[in-house]
TrEMBL record:
Keywords annotated in UniProt: Membrane, Transmembrane, Transmembrane helix
PANTHER family: EAMA DOMAIN-CONTAINING PROTEIN, INNER MEMBRANE TRANSPORTER
Membrane topology, from the record: Multi-pass membrane protein
Family, per entry: Belongs to the EamA transporter family.
Name recorded for this polypeptide: EamA family transporter
One cellular component term from this protein's GO annotations in UniProt: membrane
EamA domain span: 2-136
Predominant subcellular localization, coarse grouping: membrane
Subcellular location: Membrane
Membrane-spanning segments: 63-85, 117-136
């Protein structure tokens, strides 16, 4: 299991890095579709190798609604936004989504599933938000310094 988590993190990072260096389709939705297709194929193979199977008898209205939500919002909308952001913002800012997503998941779990949010959870969420703020502010300062240096050279 740990190997799969590491492989997933490496694959995501490698995909984000290479997406800036290879020719992608001009339409972000087409690029997103290709990325989701290949990601789905890799996960299907990994699941088959791990002995996972499809059990239609275990489907319920709730599980099908959750799947529809994940396909529409979690994949199509969110991944399209991510691909757009990668093309238009520094990767250091775009990558902060990875820290914010668990925060959103905790809040959604509390709102829709009545999950408890403890003081430890709140402390962790505060640490995540503070970390994202530090990364974004550092990137903004670095960008401003580069612009100032370029302006000084041009003058």
């Amino acid at each position: 299991m740990v190997l799969l988590v590491v492989l997933a993190a490496v694959s995501w990072g490698l995909g984000s890095f290479t997406s800036l260096r290879i020719t992608l389709p001009g339409d972000p939705l087409v690029a997103t579709a290709w990325q989701l297709l290949f990601g789905g194929l890799v996960l299907t193979v990994a699941g088959a190798c791990a002995g996972e199977g499809l059990h239609p008898s275990a489907f319920s209205a709730t599980s099908l609604a959750a799947l529809a939500y994940l396909v529409l919002v979690g994949s199509i909308v969110a991944f399209s936004c991510y691909a757009y952001a990668l093309a238009h913002a520094p990767i250091s800012k775009v990558s902060t989504y990875a820290y914010v997503n668990p925060l959103i998941a905790v809040v959604l779990g509390a709102v829709f599933l009545d999950e408890r949010i403890t003081i430890v959870t709140i402390a962790g969420m505060a640490l995540i938000v503070a970390s994202v703020v530090v990364v974004v502010r550092h990137e903004a300062r670095r960008t401003a310094a580069v612009r100032a240096g370029a302006a000084a050279e041009a003058a």
